[in-house]
Design a protein that fits this description.
Blueprint lengths: L4 E3 L2 E3 L4 H7 L3 H12 L2 E3 H12 L9 H21 L3 E4 L4 E4 L3 H8 L9 H25 L9 H32 L1
Antiparallel strand pairs: 1-2, 3-5, 4-5
Helix pairs in contact: 2-5, 3-4, 6-7
């Protein structure tokens, strides 16, 4: 079901823009395509295990059989056939392999992928926020209990300092995650 669409004088092969947005409206299909942009061909079993691990915030080795089967069934019955009918992926039922057949550059544009998602990126930021909260809470508790070094700061100064630290951390987080998009808008 490929169609040529004319955007800015250039003909693009593949599903229309509307179809692409419909296909990418599902997070599991987006994960499939992001994975296939990195590894162009993979068995459905391995693909479903990796997606299940990502969705369950665990490793492939720690997945339960139920978690694996749930994602495998969903990919096999719904998502892979849907992507295949629009010539974005091909599924070889004999080898049970999924292969990217769509235009990688076009998929990158639709997925807004600058580079492969760094595993643990969001977890890294959650650790920064967590440890800042732990240290800040310890400083507040130290201030209330009158222990050093928290006694050198007044309560207002301590709260102000923690507010500034969280604001700086939040701005750093936004720039790390959304920075490339923001910079493209400015250009």
């Amino acid at each position: 079901m490929s169609s040529a669409s004319n955007v800015g004088g250039e003909a693009e092969q593949g599903p229309s823009r509307e179809v692409m947005f419909d296909l990418l409206g599902n997070s599991r299909r987006r994960r499939v395509l992001r994975h296939l942009l990195d590894e162009r061909e993979i068995t459905l079993t391995n693909l479903s295990a990796r997606i299940a691990a990502w969705e369950n915030d665990t490793t492939v080795a720690d997945l339960s059989s139920r978690q694996r089967k749930q994602v495998y069934s969903s990919l096999y019955q719904t998502h892979i056939p849907r992507l295949s009918e629009h010539d974005i992926v091909a599924y070889d039922s004999e080898d049970r392999r999924v292969r990217l057949t769509g235009d990688p550059e076009r998929l990158h544009r639709f997925l807004d992928v600058e580079e492969a998602p760094c595993s643990g990126f969001s977890h890294q930021w959650s650790r920064y926020f967590f440890w800042t909260a732990v240290v800040g809470s310890a400083a507040i508790a130290g201030n209330w209990l009158g222990t050093t070094p928290a006694t050198h700061l007044g309560t207002e100064s301590l709260y102000g300092l923690l507010t500034v630290v969280f604001m700086m951390l939040s701005v750093s987080f936004v720039m790390a995650v959304e920075g490339p998009k923001i910079l493209r808008l400015v250009d």
